[in-house]
Amino acid sequence: MSTTPERPSAPGPLLDVRDLHVEFHTRDGVAKAVNGVDYTVSAGETLAVLGESGSGKSVTAQAVMGILDTPPGRIAGGEILFKGRDLLTLGEDERRRIRGAEMAMIFQDALSSLNPVLTVGDQLGEMFTVHQGLSRKDARARAVELMDRVRIPAARERVGQYPHQFSGGMRQRIMIAMALSLEPDLIIADEPTTALDVTVQAQVMDLLAELQRELDMGLILITHDLGVVADVADKIAVMYAGRIVETAPVHDIYKAPAHPYTRGLLESIPRLDQKGRELYAIKGLPPNLLAIPPGCAFNPRCPMAQEVCRRDVPPLYTVDEDRRSACHFWEETLHG
Amino acid sequence: MAEAILEVRDLVKHYPLTKGILFRKQIGAVKAVDGVDLDLAAGETLGIVGESGCGKSTLARMLVHLERPTAGAIRYKGEDITRLSGKALKAVRRNIQMVFQDPYTSLNPRMTVGDIVGEPFEIHPEAAPKGSRRSRVQELLDVVGLNPEYVNRYPHQFSGGQRQRIGIARGLALQPEIIVADEPVSALDVSVQAQVVNLLDALQSEFSLSYVFIAHDLSIVRHISDRVGVMYLGRVVEIGKDAEIYDHPTHPYTQALLSAVPVPDPEAREHRERIILTGDVPSPTDIPSGCRFRTRCWKAQERCAQEVPLLAVPAHLTVVPGPVQHPSACHFAEERHVVPGGEEGPTGGAGARGGKAAEDPGTGDGPEGGTGGGGGAAPG
Amino acid sequence: MPEQQPPYEDSAIAPTGAGGATDLAMSEGETLEKPLGDSPSEGGPAAKPRSLWSDAWRDLRRNPVFIVSSLVILFLVVISLWPSLIASGNPLSCDLAKAQQGSQPGHPFGFNGQGCDVYTRVVYGARTSVTVGVCATLGVGILGSLFGSLAGFFGGLPDSLLSRLTDIFFGIPVVLGGLVLLSVVDSTTVWPVVGFMVLLGWPQISRIARGSVITAKQNDYVQAARALGASNTRMLLRHIAPNAIAPVIVVATIALGTYISLEATLSYLGAGLKPPTVSWGIDISSASPYIRNAPHMMLWPAGALAVTVLAFIMLGDAVRDALDPKLR
User: Fold this and answer.
1) Residue A274 and residue A134 in one domain
2) Which of A190, A205, A233 delimits the end of a domain?
3) Phi/psi zone of residue C290: left (φ > 0), alpha (ψ -120 to 50 degrees), beta?
4) Which one of C3, C40, C164 has the shortest CB-CB distance to B22?
């Protein structure tokens, strides 16, 4: 799959983000969007990054892809190791070569991510003409192949159509086809199904998971939907105020969360199969990134907060071999 | 069922498609709502679910008289309000209010919170004497959980969840009996959604409100609703008590919809049966003959193309007592269990919530809960 | 529904100042400011209402472009009201003997072809330009936003009619139209010129107003007012107009500059103002044959015109930046 000869991919993970910091300079001050994020993704693995708006989940992904708007954004520290190389030390040219060919991104809004004045075939084919120097005709043939692969019916006829002639679900398939065109090793999907209806959402998620297995890619799924995560993820990283507060294999976290925020999220969503009486509601609001509370950022909203939470930033405690929680009271949370 | 406070009969909204620059002629119609019947009892919550384009928002806007129906009747306490205007309409409006989806566009950015929440009193001066308005506004803010001292602030100084509370306060100002909420929480963060849902719940019992709750999120609709209607392409295809719809769906569309909802339980993913629909929703300008779902339905037969299925308890199901017996617009309606959890009792993954569910006897539907599983129809 | 817990988490049901719940509600409101309003008794919450207008004003005050352009405009307005403040002479008293002479003490800009003092004429010319600009803009603004917002609000046939009408007006070339229409009137006042500009200018504003009214009309807060039973007048004046006016103000400010230059253009071509009136356009016109020998005669009125037009356009830009935070 990957033709990079330098390192065999076996020893290290595909992507290793270490202590990443990103800030935004705004009129009202410096917004600390990402404050020391660590995560790893291996080939064939699906990492779900779960968080609410402002948690830094998308900003982290943009930093990994190298599409962060700078300014106002600024990567203030950390490393992004992709196949062993630190992407942050590479030049823009090199990063551009990696983007698309080795890592690709799928966005939430497929309509605005596609160029309305070019046919779908042209946009899919562009990947091949630009990165692989194929002729227009060959690129077109590859575009049809790709559309078949993401199961767009009548691909041969529809390759000449424009984005607005496709439905939302079909457009998202085209985005997926585009991301997969050069068989990258890592796919970052930022809320890929949020804009879609449930029945279509299921189709698209299934397709994405299947292609991922087939191509043995790493997948980072950014979402706020606990249901989607449970359906497809292998492991999960929960973000809050620019930090990872809990990371764990997906089965563990749903069974027994080790961070009060995760627990609050799980208990605050209504269930399809049960009719609860009153929802548990996490009190208060997501934090203001211009003024993150001292100590644990979650402390003003946390039912378990103690003095120490207002004072000391909790490190990522080791709960289990592959489980971490940034809560001073993770043991109580886990068993309580 | 208690007496219906709102009755909707054969409601239709067609938007004409026109051609021409100065003088337009009609060349077709977008059939956004195409024959909807509903009843809303006093004090109950009727949930309406459906995917985008099914007409649920148009329905909501007709209920609060923001759109005039093309045909049909909306009866408030027996009186048809669709043709009202002037004073009579204004009087009815006091009793039916709306909560909007987007907290960012539903509040006038140039007005203070006090002016926004107090505007209903300016429009309906009889609702509150002049001197008492300010204190009424502060009371309302307090009721929805906002600091009453915020009256002089502007909407952009608040977060999404707080703005939604302001919108709710405005809706409550005239002490309406019915609140139509169109996707009231879908624009909010997960952790804030629960706050607003709980607020709506609490307000309902405090002010004995009736809700029409429109959403695409099936889990939230189940949580808040007493009865649920499922819409597809401008019509209600199935309607019933929440357990009837969620645990004993008989319409293929409802089944597909429910089976597609991701459940926050990783254990469920292995043994989950998903009905993946093929194709796209047909255009509302060109609705299929007969049953409008037939183009995507795996059960479709000759009959479905010719005969429009009516929204009624299917004849072949009337012999089966119990929750299967509810209106479903399908010639071949048949129960199918699609929501995981009921199947094998609450799965382990339900964790902290398992206990809650067990102590909850439902809203009067005995056989629900752990036992209502696969053989829901069998005992009959 | 039995009540088991307090119905809502961050309710302010607790009496104000009791800490706990109220504090939390406080902190929410402060999302853009301080993280925690530590003591509600300070009057903190009520103390800081920030309307969008006051936000815009705060931005404008910090914008050097705004400061410079508004100082220039302020200066122009003052001298057009009281030109004698800085020019003691009479713009119409000329001495042919001094024709085309350059700068000399007491006459810093020199003399024009008729021997009139260029400095005095430039100062007095400001009045004409500002009068034409302001009156034309006011007329265009009132007429255009009235028609535009009514068309946008009510839609339907009136809207179609208005759209076609504006199309027709857009088809008329302004300068050519001015030459034709103004050549039939013979007046020494500015009013025919102003009238002509209003006649041709209102469709531009009406389009802008119509568009922004349609955008504002679709906002849910207008629908909410309608659902409350608000009258059309209330919806238009209270909800739509305040939210639709910003683009109109911006375009009108920029247009003001262009009207001033249009007046000069028409006067230059002989169709605008006629001589005893003092106008930069007339002076530029009369100086043009002598541009090689006596460039100062052209330079000063042309420079004044350019600075004035630029000041209004810059002001319009600054106002746009302040009113439309999305562009930031």
Assistant:
1) no
2) A233
3) alpha
4) C164
pTM, full prediction:
0.80
Task: For C9, name the nearest residue in chain A, comparing CA atoms only.
Answer: A283
State whether A284 and C28 contact (CB < 8 Å).
yes
Strand order in the sheet with A85-86: A29-41, A15-26, A73-82, A85-86
Alpha-carbon distance of A44 to A41, in angstroms, equals 9
Q: Where are the domains of chain B?
A: 231-340
Evaluated on CA atoms B274, B275, B278, B280, the torsion sign reads: negative
C34 closest CB neighbour out of A284, A291, A292: A291
Tokens standing for residue B198 = 């709980």
d(CA C60, CA C66): 6
Q: Tell whether B160 is within 8 A of chain C (Cβ).
A: no
Structural domains in chain C, CATH included, are 1-49 (no CATH), 52-327 (1.10.3720.10)
Domain range for A156 is 11-52+67-233
The count of structural domains within chain A is 2
At A96, the pLDDT band (50, 70, 90 cuts) reads confident
Same domain, A43 and A131: yes
Q: How many residues are present in chain C? A: 328
Asked whether the beta carbons of residue A286 and residue B191 sit closer than 8 angstroms, the reply is yes
Cα-Cα-Cα-Cα torsion B270, B275, B281, B286, nearest 10 degrees, comes to 180
**Residues A109, A201 within the same domain:** yes
Which of A267, A268, A277, A285 to mutate to test binding with chain C, by most C CBs within 10 Å of its CB?
A285
Nearest Cβ partner for B98 among C161, C224, C238: C224
Q: Which partners does chain C have (≥3 C-beta pairs < 8 Å)?
A: A, B
Question: Does residue B67 belong to the interface with chain C, where contact is any CB pair within 8 Å?
Answer: no
Q: Tens of pLDDT along chain C (328 residues)? A: 333 333 333 333 333 333 333 333 333 333 333 333 322 322 333 346 677 777 788 878 888 888 888 998 898 888 888 877 777 777 777 777 777 676 777 777 777 767 777 788 888 888 888 888 889 999 999 999 998 888 888 888 888 888 888 888 888 888 888 888 887 776 677 788 888 888 888 888 888 899 889 988 888 899 899 888 888 889 888 888 888 888 888 888 888 888 888 888 888 887 777 777 788 878 887 887 777 777 777 888 888 888 888 888 888 888 887 876 554 3
